[in-house]
Amino acid sequence: MTTRREVLKSAIALVPAALHGRLSLTPRQRATPRVIVVGAGAFGGWTALELVRRGAAVTLIDAWGAGNSRASSGGETRVIRAVYNGEKVYIDMVRRALTLWREHEVRSFRERRVYRETGVLWMFESEDDAYARRSADPMRGVNLTLEELAVREATHRYPQIDFAGVRRVWWEKEAGFLLAREACELVWEACVREGVEYVTAHVRPGTIVSGRLPHVVLSDDTRREADSFVFACGPWLGSVFPDAIGRRIRATKQDVLYFGTPAGDRHFDVGTMPTWVNMGAKLLYGIPGNERRGFKIADDTLGVDVDPTAMERRVSPASVTTARRLLRRRFPRLAQAPLLLAEVCQYERSLDGHFLVDWHPGAANVLLLGGGSGHGFKMGPAIGELAARIVLRQAETLPLFAYARLRPAGQL
What we know:
Number of domains: 1
Order of helices and strands: HHEHEEHEEHEHEEHEEEEEHEEEEHEEEH
CATH class: Alpha Beta
Largest sheet: 8 strands, mixed
Radius of gyration: 24 Å
CATH superfamily: D-Amino Acid Oxidase, subunit A, domain 2
Number of strands: 20
Helix content: 25-40%
Distance between the termini: 67 Å
CATH topology: D-Amino Acid Oxidase, Chain A, domain 2
Strand content: 25-35%
CATH architecture: 2-Layer Sandwich
């Protein structure tokens, strides 16, 4: 029988090993935090990867899988840019995201490039170019390039663009686009490789008890318990938490079109054509190449509210008309370009267009992660880093992304 003295002697013998980091502890002694992340899109996938790398035991659950056609993170490409009306929080976050995208291409994606530095050309059809001009100084402060171009200089650089009606032009060198669907899949693969448990299932939260969520229920009626939960459900966040979120985050229909370029014409290829934004009566933007899918045009105007699960994803004829009108005016070589592909995605827009990265108001162990609002994808690795630190109590939430600001109109 072991005496009290022998137990004490054994405990003392372990101290030097613990101080030098050589002590092997049991799972109970390590108290490894167990985290369930719901949603394998840009926010959820990156958060799961950051959490497992910080020592958490992570389960990632998604109803249809990373980069699926219903997700806000699906589709071929997304713009990455730091012009943000001078909002320093976002500009700093883009700077961090740009660094992380490059690092992850080597570390996590096994040298697969998903970030294309084409630059972004900002074209303003009025003298009001404050959205870019306000960003110039804070961008320079984090070593990002934003320079104003004379219209004559822009015409010389890009003869395939007709600058008629353009009053101000800005050039953002380090910007470009990301391969969205593929990046989601690569993050998912990295998660699984590094020990994240992945489950395909529909999830609903259990009943909150004493200010904490004890478990979630999967579509096969099994329960999964954890210490903390991250709900990164994109456009479904409001239906998962109808009281806490509801219409604080709306899903809106957004049409995306891909047009065919002339055979052998390199004017609209990556390396020749930049990513572009046309600021006129509407904000329209486009991306060259798109992995040979065609010349992409999308309208940033908010579409109608939709159900992201049941919606039939048919592009509106009005969207085609809008795109063709811009092609004739701004890209005359593509005036008769055939429509190759059309897809419908959605924005998951918060009431003010800012992200939501904060604790559930009634559950201290549930982090709500959403409100990408059409501009969140590029921030994925930076959001994942921030969210993981918040979950592990290594960082505080940011006021700009706080839950308290999301009060629907008319609510006190």
